[in-house]
Predict the 3D structure of the following.
Amino acid sequence: MRLFISCMLFGVVALGGPAWARDINLRKHSADEIKSVCEKAGGKFSQDARGYGCGTNCRGAPGTDCMVSCKNGESCFAQVIGGRRPTTVLSALQAPAGAPH
């Protein structure tokens, strides 16, 4: 019985892991670059004294499911859900074609 429970627990962690949110490092982008891509993705751009970023619902509207954040003068990072590994700001802010809603 212990072996069965251990195997079940391992399976839940192994299969559920890719569904968790993760941070992806992106290269440095200016506020103007992020704002332009954000508008193209249908997101909401924000900026303050420490940095700037964009959030979308991953489907072309403002939200927080897909986010890119940048600290002034540093590299940006994306927060995405699932096993995605976006390499551009636009791919971080949009769900891949055919992805479930």
About this structure: Residues 1-19 have pLDDT under 50 and may be disordered. The first strand starts at residue 21 and ends at 25. Residues 13 and 56 are 28 Å apart (CA to CA). Residues 16-93 form one domain.
